[in-house]
Amino acid sequence: MVDEAALIDVVRRRLRESGRTAVAVAYSGGVDSRFLCHALLRAGLDVLALHARGAHVPEAESRLARRRAEEAGLALEEVTFRPLAEPGVRENGRRRCYFCKAALMRRLREALARREADGDAARLLCDGSNADDRKAWRPGLQALKEAGVVSPLAEAGFCKADVRAAGAASGMVDPLQLARPCLLTRFAYGVTPTEDALRRLADAEEALALLTDGNGQPLLGDFRVRLTPAPLIQAQHLPAACLPHLDAVMRRCGLAPWEFREEATISGLYDRKNVR
């Protein structure tokens, strides 16, 4: 496992190079950004979490991000972000994430500039990208680089497994938290995202996540509801007995008729056969 001290060394070095005295973290509330904030707070650094709220983030996830920040004693600012205002996002091509991340980083820097004008410390803007992200199709990483955003986990060599292990060893809440990427990733390339479709997807996923088996475990395991453009439930487990419950949820959310796909690997569905 990568040593947590290596992560802190990266951040302290970057602070010295930048001449800044404090840190801001683009904070989704997922395990990577939570662990980054957790480790920096443990090291005694001044940390501000910046959480972007918008149609692309389910309200339930924003509530959870807020609660986790409060539990950790983490300073949090919520920033309104409207990704569908960006033409490159609305067009939903393979570089959608690039345009979304570029616009989001501009929005976060605007928030930091206002805070600094009001007397806050000059902050180094970081994000929670890890070393695994550099091995996958992540066009948003280029936007982060262009914006001068630091990715300490990736620089220190932390992969997802390292993040989970270090989080568990250091007492972070829920280090096994499942990944819940931005809702825009649910749309097949070329399918136009709308705020209405984003809300329906968020409602469906929230309802499906509440379904449990006899042991109280998530019935579907890890899963996504996608528009391919046909509505699709992609899940690790799809017990035949639960199909009526799934159908009721999908119909209630205006996502019927729907298809399903049972598979072990959930993430990256639309990029598996693509070549960068």
What characteristics describe this protein?
2 domains, three-stranded mixed beta sheet, four-stranded parallel beta sheet, 276 residues, alpha/beta
Describe the structure.
By secondary structure, the chain is of the alpha/beta class. The chain folds into two domains: 4-169, Rossmann fold, CATH 3.40.50.620; 183-271, no CATH class. It is 41% helix and 13% strand. It has helices at residues 4-18, 31-42, 59-72, 87-90, 96-117, 140-146, 152-155, 160-169, 195-209, 243-252; strands spanning 22-26, 47-53, 75-80, 123-126, 223-227, 231-235, 259-262. It has a four-stranded parallel sheet, sandwiched between helices. Helix 3 (59-72) links the parallel strand 2 and strand 3. Helix 5 (96-117) packs parallel to helix 6 (140-146). It is globular.
In short:
With 276 residues, the chain is of the alpha/beta class. The chain is 41% helix and 13% strand.
Q: Could you tell me how far the N terminus lies from the C terminus, measured between alpha carbons in angstroms?
A: 30 Å
Number of domains: 2
Reported by name, the CATH topology of the largest domain is Rossmann fold
Q: In CATH, what is the homologous superfamily of the largest domain?
A: HUPs
The coarse silhouette is globular
How many DSSP E strands? 7
Largest sheet: 4 strands, parallel
Enumerate the spans where pLDDT stays under 50 for 5 or more consecutive residues: none
- Determine the mean pLDDT: 94
DSSP helical segment count: 10
CATH architectural group of the largest domain: 3-Layer(aba) Sandwich
CATH class of the largest domain: Alpha Beta
Helix content: 40-55%
